[in-house]
From TrEMBL, chain B:
Pathway: Pyrimidine metabolism; UMP biosynthesis via de novo pathway. GO terms for cellular component: cytoplasm. PROSITE patterns: DHODEHASE_1, DHODEHASE_2. Residues 2-265 form the Dihydroorotate dehydrogenase catalytic domain. One of its GO terms (biological process) is 'de novo' pyrimidine nucleobase biosynthetic process. Pfam families: DHO_dh. Keywords: Flavoprotein, FMN, Oxidoreductase, Pyrimidine biosynthesis. GO terms for molecular function: dihydroorotate dehydrogenase activity. It comes from Pseudothermotoga hypogea DSM 11164 = NBRC 106472. InterPro entries: Aldolase_TIM, DHO_dehydrogenase, Dihydroorotate_DH_1_2, Dihydroorotate_DH_cat, Dihydroorotate_DH_CS. Its cofactor is FMN. This is Dihydroorotate dehydrogenase.
Amino acid sequence: MENFSLTRSELVQLTADTFIISFNEWIDFEPIQFIMIETETSIVRKPFGLGRWNGKLAIGVQIIGPGTNYIVQQSVLEAHGPCGKGFVPPEGKGAMIATPACLPMALDLHKRYGCDVFIGSLEELSIEIPFPLVVGDEAFLNLLRSLEGYDWFLVIGSDQMEKISYDILKGKAEVFVSFNEYMACGIGACRGCAKETKNGLKHLCIDGPVLRGEEVWS
Amino acid sequence: MELRPPIVIASGTGGMGEYLKLIDPKHIGAYTLKTITFNPRRGNPPPRLIATQNYLINSIGLENVGVEKFIEELENRVYDELFKKVKVIFSFAGENFEEYLLVAQKMAPYQDRFVAFECNFSCPNVHFNPLSNVVELERMLSELRKRLNVFLIAKLGVEGAFIEEIAKIVEDCGWNGVTLINTIRALHVDGDRIIKGGISGPVLKPIALRAVYEVRKKTNLYIIASGGIMNEQDAEQFFKVGANAISVGTALYKDPKMIEKIAQKFS
């Protein structure tokens, strides 16, 4: 865990509002760990999942407000991390199901564990990606219904996309979800990112961000 | 109490020492632990936080393991590394006056390990507000003073009474210091969600400055100023109106390195 400045190496636009930012600095991290990035628009830092892009440290950013817009505009970002518990998949064949902003995380997980990756997007992407892409809600639902023969799934995206995915996939294999909750410190100090689970409160910055879906939604 | 640098990590925001992963301890005068209560507390249900450019509202609700478990952790040396690196302030509270006494009684044998005890009389995220009953508060302050032989600090808020009048009672009861101020009850509407909690951050600074100014005029207590201190300029203003030390909380979330910047200016 450390403080660092990240200098932008590359900014890749995937859709109208989604970008990949790669950095010149190298940081060791475990799959699905995240960093907390400072913005001018909030007095707390915001969490972004770590991954790789063209061999460099990278994050994906979907612009959903002034904070994420700020991050895309900057050439230098202040951050700390890596935060969170690294995701270690169970034995067997697995697949990650994610939104375009999760591409760097997906590339990293695929490289480390050889799992399949499926990207669901509302729009076509502006670049070719090495994973199957489905565009639109109906295609995404059809994809989820078609997935068979897996031992585990990892779902990362919006709250709504994660819940829909869990409901369709839960009978097919073990489903892990990277949950979202408002965060302030990212290191276990503030206790703000509490999540209700059937095993009591979990704190996503130290117990997560990945939890078993059934812990939260059973 | 001598704090060098005169910078305290605020209770709650600093957790149980986690920020030592990000801040060199030489920049910290004292580290206040999260508030410990007599019984374990699960805290409030999520959502617990909302942040804007000017404020943070938190509704953690004093989540903690309770004093018995905390003592067990102390005896199991869980915090030994923390004690080695920094001076530590123990923060405690109760759900009624009796529980304050019970926590004090349990912790009295361990008091020498701490540079001070901070009694949290002002958490806006629990229903009990000790500052609203001055007679009972005075009795409690006297009882706690009798039972604890440690530098005693009362953490006061601005809800319940004029803060300088409470601070005078704190001083008359033989206490050593006050932390001014705590968060204040606030509410944020985010679409259909309503988040109630205690507000902190830059919006709190003028209120905290006034509190420090008024309490300094009326008492000789050691004052730890807390509320909206986001940078060196904020810290300087609090020292100017009478603070002996400053407590940094929400600013940790914006930039943990801010502690170092403030420490370099005021060491």
